[in-house]
Amino acid sequence: MSDLNPLFRPKSVALIGASSDPKKYGYWTAKGLIDSKFTGDLYFISRTAAADILGKKPYASISDVPGPVDMAIVGISPKYILPVIQECADKGVKALVVVATGFGETGPEGKELEKKIVAIAQKAGMRIQGPNCMGIFSSPVHLNASTIDLADGPMGLVLQSGNFGIDINFNAKTRGIGYSAWASIGNQMDLRFADFVEYMGQDDATRVVMMYMEGLRVASVDDGRNFLHNARLATLKKPLSAIKIGRSQAGARAAASHTGSLAGSEKIFDAALNQAGVVRVETPQELLDVGEAFARCKKPKGNRIAILTDGGGHGVMATDMAEPLGLDAFVLSEETQKKLRAILMPHCPIKNPVDLAGTPEHDMWVFDRCAEVLLADPEVDGLVIAGLYGGYCDFSEEFRQMEMDVAKSLVERANNSDKPVLMHSMYYAQQPESLTYIRKHGFPVYGSIDSAMRAMGALVGFNSRQEKIKEELAATPPQLPEDRKSKVDAIFKTVRSQNRINLVETEAREVLRAYGFDLPNHLLATSPDEAAKLFTEMGADKVVMKIVSPDILHKTDAGGVILHVDSTAKAREAYNQLIANGRAYKADADVFGVMLTPMLPGGIECIIGSSYDSTFGPSVMFGLGGIFVEVLKDVSFRVAPVNTPEAGRMIREIKGYPMLTGVRGQSGANVPALEEGVSRLSYMVAELSSDVAEVDLNPVFATENGIEIVDARIVLHPTENK
Amino acid sequence: MSDLNPLFRPKSVALIGASSDPKKYGYWTAKGLIDSKFTGDLYFISRTAAADILGKKPYASISDVPGPVDMAIVGISPKYILPVIQECADKGVKALVVVATGFGETGPEGKELEKKIVAIAQKAGMRIQGPNCMGIFSSPVHLNASTIDLADGPMGLVLQSGNFGIDINFNAKTRGIGYSAWASIGNQMDLRFADFVEYMGQDDATRVVMMYMEGLRVASVDDGRNFLHNARLATLKKPLSAIKIGRSQAGARAAASHTGSLAGSEKIFDAALNQAGVVRVETPQELLDVGEAFARCKKPKGNRIAILTDGGGHGVMATDMAEPLGLDAFVLSEETQKKLRAILMPHCPIKNPVDLAGTPEHDMWVFDRCAEVLLADPEVDGLVIAGLYGGYCDFSEEFRQMEMDVAKSLVERANNSDKPVLMHSMYYAQQPESLTYIRKHGFPVYGSIDSAMRAMGALVGFNSRQEKIKEELAATPPQLPEDRKSKVDAIFKTVRSQNRINLVETEAREVLRAYGFDLPNHLLATSPDEAAKLFTEMGADKVVMKIVSPDILHKTDAGGVILHVDSTAKAREAYNQLIANGRAYKADADVFGVMLTPMLPGGIECIIGSSYDSTFGPSVMFGLGGIFVEVLKDVSFRVAPVNTPEAGRMIREIKGYPMLTGVRGQSGANVPALEEGVSRLSYMVAELSSDVAEVDLNPVFATENGIEIVDARIVLHPTENK
Fold first, then answer.
1. Is the pLDDT assigned to residue A144 strictly greater than 70?
2. Which of A37, A279, A627, B322 could form a disulfide with A241 if both were Cys (CB 3.0 to 4.6 A apart)?
3. Which of A170, A321, A448 sits opposite B429 (nearest CB)?
């Protein structure tokens, strides 16, 4: 049983702080609970009330309630709350919804109070939603413990802001769609997004999970990774969509002032949502656009859509919007065009969009006949009907009737098809009965074309998002050598024993080698003579020599790299030069020596890296070197680890990707080798996350044959994590 | 007097095809004309009606009308229309609105008919709107000759689709905003966008010009350039905004099927709108978002905006949206923060967004006091109020009254300020009286944050768009040599006399030189000996030698370029090699010889080019060479000519621009020299537009000192234009 069952499926509920004063929250909530006809036992608790509240006798304390209480809603001010929480714990209450405000959101004192509450709850095995929240709604048990007029329906919604709950609900009411489960989660002092996503993912009454997020509350990155994991599992059951605000720098600053949630990297958050299959949208309107389609529509097999319109301009506009949303408004087959031509007059365009161009004014059934042809076309994965449907009823009673009849037929067609159908209507706001019928019995109707198209775009990606997650969950890491941990631990121990966090390149190369990266041999010289000796030993035509010092991280800036060393004499000379340059750069630098490596023939410059995000922990990054990273910031991120197909998507999503396929007469790179490298590094940093803060393989030369790591930098956390 | 005054300000109007049958278009229009209380004389013409139509005696023919007729609405089917048009011409009607359908949109026959109609009209000096349109509306004379329920207001709207007219009007009605001038322009057989933009630009009743465009109808590029010119002049008077559909390839294909309008390059169209200061939007909703703000708001001095919110999440969302819209949600000054802190409780964030965080529930006047501080701050250019305003009235009668009082004060403040104020409210759809008051007497209120922010973004750019146009209209071209035309004409004459359209490089260089481009000397050798002699004559350490042949345009592919020629012997050798390579590439190539130029030291590779757009004629293009153009398609376009500041914007808007400022230790380029080059080429192609179809200066080396044109290609139109 989920920890959240007592919240969403309680058999008994107590409202602590119930009131008969219609100006008080304790009254509104009491009224909401009664009006929603909660299926279980309902108790009102009021320390002060003598008379009945809404016809119910109040109890002075929860301890006085005769039977067990699964869940309690707590509307008690911070000053008086601790004993009440203790009473709930003593009573054996399984879950609390603390709707009161004045806790962590007000400052350090409030945060301390939250800790005390959580301590009591944890001891008693009691879970808490809130504080500073707007309550909870659950349709299967007819529970509305919010002050908002929420209706039953197929949507799950978790919000970090009660106001957005109201905002979205206005819109949902207009659309005639409601909720299976709704929770305003406030300060998340105990239960967090991860918990609600887990519950709603499993809840059969919920067909889509929607979130409004300002940031995750994390005690450690485990919380972030737990959210990612739960969201992935939820996506395997049903679609997820989220608003996450704080995208811009100014927005992140504002979000920090608002909720105090420490923001990790926005790019990593975006990547995490993407990896979990969560469709990210920007506005409450878009959240419902997508959520309604997710809740009501079939999921298309592919991205080829047909557009059927009686407004030529609307059809073109829909077509325009297809491509950026990943939809293909393809040219219909000759066969389908032939069938359509048999239905439509010669002046009607039929390639896609199919433009009825005035014909419905004579015969509205053309909508239905064309929809039949389009839904039967095996090349068509989904259908968008756009334009004036819903407005014909204004012409005459005969038209009104016909519009209803056609609507019924369209609904039947859509319901019998395994393809999604969405409609846009100019007459949406007028709510004509034909559209109301379609929305209620068939498919979503939108008032703007971009809404309809965005929703179709979200539907189209669902199957591939699920596939990606299944593949990722089933993935086996690249083969990692058995003895890697002992090797790496020894290196980290040395580094930490010297009070360092920066690995020198020789150490970084050993760590990478321990994880199975194939790096060319390196040798460390500590005198000019040894440099000469090692040059010979190396047996390469040319070697690169680099200074090795934990105090000189930017070796090139310090004159710490010499290329093209091709003789013992030059090796000796280079050694002296590098040591001199190092001293000149930083007189007291601790110099370990000079490293020799065979000089590599070059390739396409890439960067593979990792940083440690405060929310999601180890991440992995890929980009092309040079101007691509420095000028164009053309890089991709993921939460680590990633399997090779996902690494492949990282590589392909950068704008400079064509460089790797070979352009301007240059040969391309071995992309599978790059994928393997990115994936391997991601597994490495995931496994070493308690030590490794940062990895920078830069440059990595990608060639036709494989990849060559030319320089490597690893930085540890100041102290080991956990 | 504008040609369109008889359309929008007629003293007398005739409806040809009036009807008393409520099912007919001729009835609806008649009713619209009567209901709108047209201020002038109104005549109904009906060949068949015996009885009065809506209380008015119909005339059998327009010739029967006793007085003069300024404008006639023609609802006569194509079969019978020609004699009617002739009658109108004979009657001295100044303008027609042909609302009937079945003309050019149906095929070649319809197009022929359009030509005949236009011929009659032109002969009589009569202008025509339509056909295949939904009529016209003009508030100053109370004319509603459309079948849509349009209301008075400050907006001008020109549409290529009547359906969008209905669509937008639904939305406008909800917003309580109407039109000064409205025209559905259909097939544009005579009057086109350019004419309507000109009229509405000058019309005092119109405060914003909005357009829905599928494409310009152009007989020649003069029409496209005329639109650009008129739109520029209109922007100097008031803001313009447009939807232009057909942005994607699939969309352009669909638009072609829909209106048959030949699409020029989408990129050039986008550039033209930008050059004319027209704010391009994507949806009918956005058009009104922006249009309403344009019609009702002051234009801000800069882009620094303050966000005042009582919904923390809404504030963050607004802040997030600022940056991509060119708005700066900056951190407010210490001084302003101090003033806000004196008003607000310690837990309220005041940096920007200013978050009232629950305080209005105790005292709604905080809205007004904070707005006062923010509007008085000289750093603040505009104010967005976002969140729950409009919803407080639900609490109590006292709150309802207070919400109205605060609304009145906010309106007064906004009206007394020279800064724009916009509001977002969650309660927009409920239309509470406070919001209705604000919208009617003060400033726009939007139902979604993105609408409000987008509108502010459009407002913010208006002044700079005007400045840009003023500067462009006042610009003097780069100094162009006096004798350029005679020199160039001679070259073109030679080229055309040889039935060529491709200039060889020596010719292209001469054309450029004639226009004042500073190119290094070139010499043409026609034998190995001459090559040797010219090498010496050139006096350069190294020269580049290239084959010169109108049949070998891709010289590099043909082995037609040899670099680093540094002796007479090598010059001789290179000559032979080039000729041999040329022959091997194309045996029958007409080879003019081999060109010698001094070899240049190199620089940052750029491309400056020009192509001839079917709508707007000569254009100019700028990009960086190599991967920037080939892989990243990172180029900018303009309709030619452009002044140097605009050329500067072209250069700065490419993503690779930082390359030109110097990155990775390389020195940057002389950007003013590049600007001069782009501008000079743009004036050259504008002046030579009847001959020149394409110019490709590729590569151009940009160095610290200036630019060096390394290769030049010019292609002429197959036949001279005009």
1. yes
2. A279
3. A170
